[in-house]
Design brief:
Length: 288
């Protein structure tokens, strides 16, 4: 038995993955996410964006519908949702002076509610023509406007802040720009999405496009949408950034992932986000 085949077995990847035919199975039920008894209601599907040209069928789905009842329930109760403690820490940091300029985020941006809508359009091209994720904007403010230290991409303070900012857009449809100056980044991200990586020679599409709805190990494969990020992972007992999730998925193919925050991952972030254009931002979601 070759090494590649052994590791395939170790991963427990079902034979479905090697079948050329499409094997995706759409969820049979798509209830809304009803938070705090209806204070917030989030649909879990939307019409597939035109640029997908039917690659995911005619509907796109939140990762929430692929999770078990217990995990779903945690996201339907802001009190039980473990992300919320980290959101609180993010809001505290928002109001705390840091750095040589004696400023907090609030000194310039006022209440964190002023960030409403920001998450829905990230990542986006900045004034200098670069594709920036929310983390880049935050660190730009910290280093160039506050005289504070940059936070590491997936450090706890950074994830607290991206969570707190994302929550302000809860319920707003994802709406990343893919044309104009964003086009070349989007094209590159698309190329990465369809490239087969690692010993297992699997692309993102092999799992999240051709096989969503299938079981892989004990996991119910979703479409790999990003509208819930950052998420709280029960298994990892902590918050997980999008680039951390990308890293984990690439590592599962036995490949060396790109650096978190790299150009490649930001391009990929834009492309994957665009596959979810129309799904509501979940802000602070829970995954297993
Ligand atoms: C000295 C003033 C100042 C401080 C302090 C500051 N910012 Fe900013 N921030 C700005 C300006 C100016 C922009 C650019 C606005 C624009 O061009 O639309 C910006 C942009 C942003 C953006 C991008 C928003 C968008 O819609 O593109 C985010 C996110 C952000 N800041 C987060 C933060 C966070 C988090 C902190 C605290 C850690 C912070 N900022 C501190 C002035 C500040
Ligand atoms: C071997 C199959 C496999 C490959 C290849 C793979 N993933 Fe995943 N991915 C998973 C599994 C399993 C999960 C956890 C269950 C789920 O949400 O699908 C997951 C979860 C995700 C999630 C979180 C979805 C949510 O709602 O929480 C994102 C985003 C994601 N993957 C993106 C990617 C991207 C981008 C690539 C390509 C770089 C990729 N994945 C490649 C198996 C894979």
């Amino acid at each position: 038995m070759t090494k590649a085949i052994r590791s395939l077995g170790a991963l427990g990847i079902s034979l479905a993955l090697t079948l050329p035919a499409l094997a995706e199975t759409a969820p049979t039920e798509t209830p809304d996410i009803v938070i705090d008894g209806g204070a917030v209601t989030l649909p879990t599907f939307a019409d597939a964006p035109a640029h997908l040209e039917g690659a995911l069928g005619d509907k796109i789905y939140s990762g929430w519908v692929f999770r078990d009842a217990e995990t779903r329930a945690m996201q339907e109760d802001d009190f039980a949702n473990p992300s919320m403690a980290f959101v609180d820490q993010g809001i505290e940091a928002w109001n705390t002076v840091d750095g040589t300029e004696g400023k907090s985020c609030a000194s310039c941006h006022n209440e964190i509610e002023s960030m409403k809508g920001v998450r829905a359009v990230m990542p986006k091209v900045n004034a200098a023509g670069e594709l920036w994720s929310m983390e880049n904007y935050i660190n730009d403010c910290r280093t160039n406007r506050m005289g504070a230290e940059a936070w590491k991409w997936s450090s706890q303070p950074m994830e607290n802040m991206t969570l707190a900012i994302s929550l302000q857009s809860r319920g707003m449809p994802v709406d990343v720009a893919i044309d104009g100056p964003a086009k070349p980044f989007w094209e590159k991200g698309k190329e990465i999405y369809y490239t087969r990586y690692g010993q297992l020679e699997l692309s993102c599409a092999n799992c999240h496009q051709q096989n969503y709805g299938q079981m892989i190990r004990a996991d119910h494969l979703s479409q790999g949408q990003t509208n819930g990020f950052p998420v709280f992972r029960i298994n990892g007992a902590g918050t997980v950034s999008l680039h951390e999730r990308f890293s984990g998925c690439i590592r599962d193919t036995r490949a060396e992932p790109f650096e978190q925050g790299s150009q490649e991952f930001r391009d990929l972030e834009l492309y994957v986000a665009s596959r979810g254009n129309g799904l509501p931002v979940e802000g602070a979601s829970v995954r297993h």
